[in-house]
Amino acid sequence: MPQSNLLLDERHRVIRERLAVDGRVLAADLARDLGMSEDTIRRDLRELAALGECRRVYGGALSVSPASGTFVERQTQDVNRKAALAREAAKLVAPGQIVFLDAGSTNLAIARALPNDANTTVVTNAPAIASAVLGRTGFEVILIGGVMDVRAGAALGAQAVRDVSGMAADICFVGACAVDPQLGVGAFGFEDAAFKRAVLERSRIVVVAATNDKLGASAPFHVMPGADIDHLIVEHDASAELLSCFEQVGVRVHRSSAAEDKR
Hints:
Blueprint: H1 8-22, E1 24-26, H2 27-34, H3 38-50, E2 55-57, E3 60-62, H4 71-74, H5 79-90, E4 98-101, H6 105-113, E5 120-124, H7 127-133, E6 139-143, E7 147-149, E8 154-156, H8 158-165, E9 169-173, E10 178-180, E11 184-187, H9 190-200, E12 203-209, E13 221-224, E14 231-234, H10 240-248, E15 252-255
Parallel strand pairs: 4-5, 4-9, 5-6, 9-12, 12-14, 14-15
Antiparallel strand pairs: 1-3, 2-3, 7-8, 10-11, 11-13
Helix pairs in contact: 1-3, 2-3, 5-6, 6-7, 8-9
């Protein structure tokens, strides 16, 4: 029932709750449900966006991806959920392929999930990912050089882009900070996004693995359109409505098994 007497803090709380559940809100829907004018709701959304709690888009707002911490910080978050995604993602790798894994905590989990003795070449700009397969049987490792970005945990910049320009990958796992059917894949760093785009130009198959909190979220720097993803790996309980939007543009969606609770 509309509640036109809601105070500012109460409206903001409702908006935050809907963003947390759905990843997005529409100003028209909020205005109808809360009994407020659309101008009032749009002002609320601008205020929340200024606080960094959402990202304004035409007609409403999107939640901001939580994947804004450093690579070291993200390695300790949602470990079991990322491992479940990694097991599903590793099934897409065939023996003898050249596999590119750019920086990302989910991609680190994928590196650990790759099978031994598959004659796989792993190319990465992240030392932690290189270390995850270095010394294991059946792997050749190529580490991209350049200036190390502490937040990304990877080499970025002009040298790294030049290094990948002379390579071609059979399959590329793109580390994504945010994944949305309309906005596509986003990143929090300008140089990180530029490096990812350079890799995508040299890759035959593009795979994105994303936890639920990245789906329908936003990040400031564009990497690729959602329709350009070949395979999207998601959690077992990801929103069917959101995933149908990816499937409608030709993205093949794979659900992982439920994460194992190892506490």
